[in-house]
Amino acid sequence: MASVIFVLEENCLSALYEIEIIIFKEHRVNIYVGNLPFSVTEEMLRQVFAQTGEVTVVKIITDAYSGRPKGFGFVEMPNQTEAQRAIKELNSHALDGRNIIVNEARPKTERPRRISRY
What we know:
Blueprint: H1 10-27, E1 29-34, H2 42-50, E2 57-62, E3 69-77, H3 80-90, E4 94-95, E5 98-99, E6 101-104
Antiparallel strand pairs: 1-3, 1-6, 2-3, 4-5
């Protein structure tokens, strides 16, 4: 059996790594989770979604100044089928006394910077 060895320059290897990240990101599904109770932690949310499949990222959005949760977050799942099952099964699911809203996140759009009045 013959083996082939490729020697790549550092910048080519970096470019291949970036391509790999882009390909991997395309297959991940970003899920919006709204109406979250303020008592829910990222670990609790991870456990709920892990019941339907693999979870790669969980992020609960917090206020920049107070650090308090804003009541929504995002869950990222690498498998499209598992993500769709999570959306279907967990939308309107009761979590700490509130029915959460679960749907596929919309792509982030560019918004103009807000000017502080203070």
